[in-house]
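[Q] Does anyone have a clean structure-token version of this?
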Amino acid sequence: MACQKERKSVKWTNAFKSTLFFVAISLAGNSFAMLKLPAVIDDNMVLQRNQVNNIWGWADAGKEVTVSFRNKMYKTISGRSGEWLIKLDPAKAGAAGNMIISSGRESITLENILIGELWLCSGQSNMEFAMDGFKQTYPDEIANANDDNIRYITINNTFDNRERPDAAIKVKWSSINRETIEKCSAVGYFFAKKLRERLKVPVGLVVSSWGGTQAQAWVDVNTLNGFPNYKAVYDTSIKKIDFLRLEEIKKKNEILYQERKSLSSASFHQMTTVDYNDNGWEKTKLPGIWEENGHNTLDGIGAYRVYFNVPEGMESKEAVLHLPYIDDADSSFINGKFIGTWRVWNEPRTYKIPASVLKAGRNVLTIWVEDTGGGGGMNNDVKGFYLEAEGKSISLAGDAMFKVLAPVEDIAAGVNYASLQNQPSVLFNAMIAPLLHMAFKGVIWYQGESNTYAYVEYRKLFPALISNWRQRFSQKEMPFLFVQLSSFNPNITEPEVSEWAGLREAQTYALKLPKTGMAVTIDVGDQKDIHPQRKKEVGDRLAANAFHIVYGITKEVYTGPMFSTATVTGNTIKISYTNTGSGLKMKGDKLMGFAVAGADKKFVPAEAIIKGNEVMVSAANIKIPLYVRYAWAEAPIDANLYNKEGFPAAPFRTDK
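[A] Here you go.
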């Protein structure tokens, strides 16, 4: 008799290899329902057109398995541990009806299958964020959504230290309508919609992304051999964790953390006074996140003390304290007096200081910071860290004292639960490995925000990830289209270092690989929000890359101007570009975003004008300019060079 479809997650290290012992145990314990399919093989799924598609699963060991699909029958024999795989013949796009999988007296029927274009959507939160987060930006898009030929499935956020054979599912295969669109990746949806409009075929999305995650978590263990720092973490810590006991360990550590937090709270107030002895605290710099100041794995509670001098005449005046973003929450005190608290990690703080608080001479700012996971501490915004009163300001940036008050207990050496999703290979194991038998047309990727601290390493890490996925999906040149980081953080101008600019530059290194494309998005970012609302432009620009790189529509412009050469003539630098389309243009009355420097590499804003397909830049006080930069900042929203097709120019620098 037929059995119900069963979705059981079983751990393994490689597709149908190595630790199939786990599969055997699972199957032996469910002898009444031996025929199984992975969770991604289900009703309403989309298969890739014009390519071989795999159907796979588990059955009784050594038994015949048949797949009936599109008037063809395919047969195979399951392996010693019950694994089986069948390759379907390539088929044209369109409705494909039902599929019947049988073994012995058991059968599973999959209904309403489509054949079209299948894309993998991965990365971090800007890929993960669904349309329900953009109701105010795209109300009509959501209200009028109705396209059965766009379908998606969402993989649940999961990690492991062994490659899993099956994925945990957050949203099952669904077609787009008014109810389902809200759970679909916004970038993925707009990308798919553009493909549907142009290609006139069904489009399927497999969304496997996790907000705040780092690239090293998305590569397999073998790739770690090229990154000894991550390989050491995996071998010494991650590999030894018992993932079956994670919830038990988490609860135990949470109890311990709350005990530490309570003890710290009881003694913290005395730490806020000017005369408190903080000789046992460590020296640090503010602003700056913990991970950049010697605490790579810290989550929990820490405290800062910052000394500052108030000049005569400013004391006993009302004032305002300005703090950069603090990850995640803060409670701030000046001279022992509570000033304010805020629990939103990506917003600056502005606290009013009562007239009785400031004293002439030495004062102290004490900040209690609680971080529940990921990056912690204070965002590196020097200009946003100050005190103002009577029209004057006092910078608070510089030396500070720091003390760890209540750390979250590690579950392994240097690894705590809150940061587990960022550990090497754990997301590949749980969220990519289960998909390796699927036939994808390509990948769209939006990630990098969480690797800005290591932008130099990303020059190597990101291309390694692309090559790794191509090798593991058995597609040597699987198209890989990615989003260059958008704009975020206060607009840091030259000559200050910009990690976000460095990461954007690192992303361009991946364009050296074949069949890669990049969507530039600095113009649709939000200086105050790491999750900008304008997702349609992102999806559309990824689709433009796909049409050119993947679908052979090569006569159309698909991206913005890319730096080619810089030629110095007298006091001017002439910049030449590729991808100029039908010509360069600026949005606004003045070309913005350029800076030049002489031999000292001290950059100053430059005057820039467009001449044909070139840009001429100069600065009045630099007689011999040698180097030029464009949009080299955290949030270069004012950069306004485009081609006439509307694609923004990519940031660059010549001072390598």
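[Q] Thanks! Anything notable?
[A] Residues 246-268 form the longest helix (23 residues).
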